[in-house]
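Lay summary

Proteins are chains of building blocks that fold into shapes. Our project writes down both the chain and a compact code for its shape. Here are two examples, one after the other.
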Amino acid sequence: MMKRMIFTAMLLHCVCAGIGADSLTGKVTDEAHRGVAYANVVLLALPDSVFVAGTVSDADGCFTLEASAPGEGLLRFSCLGYRSCTVPASGFTGEVTLCEESVRLQGVEVVAERPVHQLKDGALLTRVEGTTLSQYHRINDMLAVLPGMTFTVSGEVEVFGLGTPVIYINNRKARADELQQLTPQDIRSVELITNPGARYDAEGKAVLKVYTLRRDDGHALLAEHVSEQGRRYSDYETLRYDYWNRKLHVSAYYQYADYRSVVNQPQSHELALGDSLYLYRNPDQGDRRDTKQHTWYANADYELTARHVIGAKVEGTHTRDYTFRTGSLAYGWSHAPLAEKDIDNDYLNRTDVYHANLFHNADWSNRLSSALNLDFVYNRNRYRQATAETSSGEWLETESRGKGNLSIASGQLAFDYRPASGVQVGFGSDVSRVHTHNELQSTADNVAASLYDEDEVRAAAFADVSAEAGSFSFRAGVRYEYMQMKFRDRLDASGNLTRRFHNVYPSASVSYKRNGWSQTLSFSSRTTRPSFRQLSNAVYYSNEFMYQRGNPLLLPATAYKLEWSISHKPFYFSASYTYEKNHLSTCHEEEAGNRIISTFCNYRRIQYLKATQNIQKTFGIWHPSLTLGISQPFFKVMYRGEPLAYHSPNCTAALNQQFTFRKDYLLSVYYAFYSGGDLGSVSIRPYQMLNLELQKDFFEKRFSVSLKAYDLLHTMKFREEQREGNLRFTQTEDYQLWNFSVSLVFRFNQLKNTYRGKNSSASDMERM
């Protein structure tokens, strides 16, 4: 079925070639010859300057204007922060330059300061180009200071209260590791959509859209070295090459990462069975981790004509992850010790990922455009775990070996049609097939061998329409998704399972702009699918009393969200309510021998009230930005036969300050406080972080040096407690993130990395 759908989509894509109209194409640039995004382009008739047609430039400043006689009349170009420009349409050469708007007062020139953050149809648009945000060395440091974004305790970046966002780079769906291949100087602007509509994949609770810069044609080179000294030493080397001419873009990238860390993770479990209380304490559990990773890609895209672009991309990652874990387990019953043992674990995991993408982007006319993307992904994983348990002179040694292969084939076709000025209709479809094969063998008595296959077929279609009327703009859409999931146990056919899902996800929004104020009221429905690890029935051995396993019976979670956002110059505020059914979370079971099984399950529902506020302003060399956020959950579980409420709010406050000094010095001070609170069935204690960074640019910003102190207070520790079922679980996750680092970046004629294809398989790849 999927092959027929892909063939039909390609046929529709080609049939559209018959649709056309007279048009005029060009580009709007600034005085540095950089594209001006979202500039208004209007064709006026002579002699009375009556409006004929209009359009808006894209993120690169390019535009296509359709009209019956585009070579007649006047062309007027305008954009916020720039002086308007009018030229004869007959003499238009394909590019126009806008100058920044300024006012002279008694010999002093005052240049209008455009706000860094703006609300645009419900999305928070952050301008990076030309701001101090572009001077950060690392993309995560820049993203963490955006309103609504925050650091996690493991050092990653997520949307406050929503988790990891779905990422788009130049409207191409991308993975998180692809985003790390960019630097802030590559980026023009970032859009954060916390309530995405129908045109986006139904999976994911937020969307982060990144638009990169495009500079002059020619060669570009980026070389970077990072040295980090924390508890252990780590280093990263990156090399990227780009070549552009008018029609061809070629890019190649390679990164080697040698990451070494120490993790402290003490745990305790209390298992209540009847009148008995079993205690399991591991107060000194810790890891030494060594990860070596090679990442590469190569891509090329070519403009067949000004309206048709084709391209291909291949990329790969090889990871070798070795972890040595030590600890001691004290086991007791009703506060009387029964046994103690020392536990050593050796983990070795090798993973190879390969991805290929083919695309064709087309503008069939000024009214109709399309994007066709085909993807194939192959993931290979090999896993070995050796565990040695020593107790009172007794020695127990177990070994587990596993391997898995995963392949994803997907296709996506999307159209945009503009029937009239201010009106846009989007529609499209995507299909994917995921096949997973996993094997596991173990010498442990309580870990059964597993051999199984999983197949997942998904087909989706969407349609949405947006329109503008005066100060108002409207958007409404609907997305339909069909999914079939098959689980085949090669060792026990009684465990075979086939399930089918049909879901409809509506969305709508209304926005209003006037006198510098912008506000949006939006509604959306989303889903969260279980990861392949969560669906696996494979068992992962921890010790004689504890192990983990997946749950092939998990259902996707569905969330409904209502959000209101408002902004005015330096001020931004949003508030939302979310209702999620079939909430996915960890849970625990017990079996004979007082063994504890950690697994995953669906809860009936969870609800959230959330609010985020940001204010930012520039005072000379001082650029402060303050973000406040609160998330109030409403969630209940059963604990020891009684309902237990998790209603404690969690709050965050983040203050980012940048100081720009003469001679290209930049000082950044980032402080964040997290109050703790409830996240599902887990209660978190407060933690905080403080980062300092000093940067200096040399040779007209071709060479840049950064000195950074990360988690200077050594306070990024994740202390949690979970009470659910018959188990009380406490844990401290101390990833020892604090470090001091030196980053050296060399840029030669720096360009953006702007592969124009879209990844139709990104959502499935994120679940690997």
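And here is the second example, written the same way.
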Amino acid sequence: MSENKEPHVAKFVYDFTEGNKDLKDLLGGKGANLAEMTNLGLPVPPGFTITTEACKVYLESGEEPVALRDEVSAHLDALEQKMGKKLGQADNPLLVSVRSGAKFSMPGMMDTVLNIGLSDKSVQGLAKQAGDDRFAWDSYRRLIQMFGKTVLGVDGELFEEALDAAKAAKKVTVDTDLEAADLKKLVTKFKKIVKTEAGRDFPQDPREQMDLAIKAVFDSWNGDRAKLYRRQERIPHDLGTAVNVCSMVFGNLGPDSGTGVAFTRDPASGHQGVYGDYLQNAQGEDVVAGIRNTVPLAELESIDKKSYDQLMQIMETLENHYKDLCDIEFTIERGQLWMLQTRVGKRTAGAAFRIATQLVDQGLIDETEALQRVSGAQLAQLMFPRFDEDAKVEKVGRGIAASPGAAVGKAVFDSYTAVKWSRSGEKVILVRRETNPDDLDGMIAAEGILTSRGGKTSHAAVVARGMGKTCVCGAEELEVDTKRRRMTVPGGHVVEEGDVISIDGSSGKVYLGEVPVVPSPVVEYFEGRMHPGADDADELVEAVHRMMAFADRKRRLRVRANADNAEDALRARRFGAQGIGLCRTEHMFLGDRRELVERLILADTEAEREEALKQLLPLQKKDFVELFEAMDGLPVTVRLLDPPLHEFLPDITELSVRVALAESRKDANENDLRLLQAVHRLHEQNPMLGLRGVRLGLVIPGLFTMQVRAIAEAVAERKNAKADPRAEIMIPLVGTVQELEIVREEADQVIAEVQAATGTQLKLAIGTMIELPRAALTADQIAEAAEFFSFGTNDLTQTVWGFSRDDVEASFFTAYLEKGIFGVSPFETIDKDGVGSLVKAAAKAGRATRPDLKLGVCGEHGGDPESVHFFHEVGLDYVSCSPFRIPVARLEAGRAATQSAGSDHR
């Protein structure tokens, strides 16, 4: 173990009366919000929070801070005095829960232990205190079960099997039908399981129970499921977790007691109303685990109107205080309402947009804050297709619409299979009776999640919403048999593992087979085919429309499109593009023009080469005329030919076989022989680092000048038609200013010739892509010959990391992500420390030489939400991305411009 190094902090433990909601870094989200509710005068059971700083010391050194035990003892003494009870005393025991609470919500990923303080002696005192033997023994068996699994590492299935056996012996189906004598026998069985599996007795000392539970919560920060969840949600690994020690209140004291989870608005749709789940005679874990089906929260009004009315008032108080959707856990103990937790609730993408606009209309937040409540990732989810309601489908069940989306895949019944099949390229739906935190890797791998138990507040629902996964919960009519790997649907049809099913997270419907999909209404809105209206879909469109208008008013970054033809350009314009940041001219050389490119490559003489270029020229010009027409009045950046020439030739293996077969038949084709010779001549070991980009323009005379001439003539033609073409010429793969100077000199000459021939004034900006480390490091020199830089971050990432994108993502990126080397692929989100540092340095150096240098980015990072924020920060003028990512980039550019410190809406 390393030396115990403690930070210089005033204390490691805070009473609930000492903190507030702004201390999430120190007290974690749960502790900070318990303190805030205490400050508001809400009914919170007394308790205290052990800080994240204590956790960090423990994780770094393997030992708790020296001062921690004494601080916990002092706060425990104060708690005992306040409650008039002592922890675990025989006649009148104080019981506590020990719960995790990180800065960011990680539902079910870390550990919780309830009923700490129960022992063979104190269980008798609890029974006497409550006047209920069954309740006391039920609480004791829960403690041993949770403690055994969480603290001592006993397989939880062993406890479940013993519980199922007890119910079977009694011929009952739910645990509430077990009587005190049954539960007492179960406690004895559970203690034997602990002794056998853990090699020690269940601890009878209540302080030992509490101390071991605190350590277990600290350890759970680095548990496999917690680390996987943090990687998935992009939560930093060095935050640590706080630990909350709270006096127990009991929902399992009979029919006048219970536990529940409530939302101040529907987390699936965002609509206002009474949303949540309630379970009589239960403890909190029963609700989130989904092991017993709950009743809707609205039914609490008829069960316990006094508590219901008080809860409604508290929910209104909390929403107005937090100015957001709140997720609340509560317990009713014999008619007394207690608040156990509140947090800003996870929500679906559609709910996020609706709630943000609702809160603006209510005057609780302004437009700037509203933009922080939504994200580009959520907008992207809303653009996914949905099921075609008019298709012929076979509906077999319906559950609770927990997280929207249209998911189709093969049914699998455990997480291991889900991960295995997904890695093999299969799309899967994870089907479970209920999920638990151990299912996280399977939930990530699946297209969607289907459970037969649980509600909108179950583990499956909460985690799915957080990840943006389609989820249907509580489909009770479906009989899920995980051991036999099958599901029986009404009518007796059996869905075996591997059978295709479809689930609709917006309606809760479950279908056999693959249901066809149709475009999202949000995409139809961006395409101009749908306008804000009154029904549910249009209400969402209205919310998206308003948030996009907010973003467009606030953003500084302009958003362009990567588009190579008029059709894509027009779609991009409908989606809000402010120009084209990357037109890849190589795409214009494919199809029926490939033969002309082959003739260019095979040319043995200057005359043959010029003839091929002469025939390509009008075709290129036509492409540019159409593109400039589609983007009239907006800039169009045209990249000259970039890829290696061998990409325009037949595959070497296929061509070799064709030639060999022809030779064997003695009818060899002369052109095929010349092509094969050319393929061998142009073959490179590393073609992406070979003869491509500007190097082609320097080595193959006339290639770049033909393209420049086509651009210039197209601009002249459009100008003569009284249009407003705004072309920019981009030279790819420049590594030194000398390359750019030579190509630029030739381009300027061609532009002058076209200007003279057409009598049209032409002003074409010439710039370059910065996609090589050397270009970034010598940007001050390159800016002398460039009027703009466009960062090609795809290639820049390859060359900085030494990765071949086509190879590494399939070969070892999965392992790098699993081991935490990457939080996310550097091709998906820009590597700020490496690639980002070069972008920042090149931008600064380029503008030092040429202050009016225009700066943009045209790699796919231009449509990645997190990367857009980085490009805003380093002062780029625009980002460019594929047409369907334009709305995401527009929204994130607005969010970047209004980013406020301390907004933790995940």
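What can we say about the second shape? Residues 108 and 437 are 6 Å apart (CA to CA).
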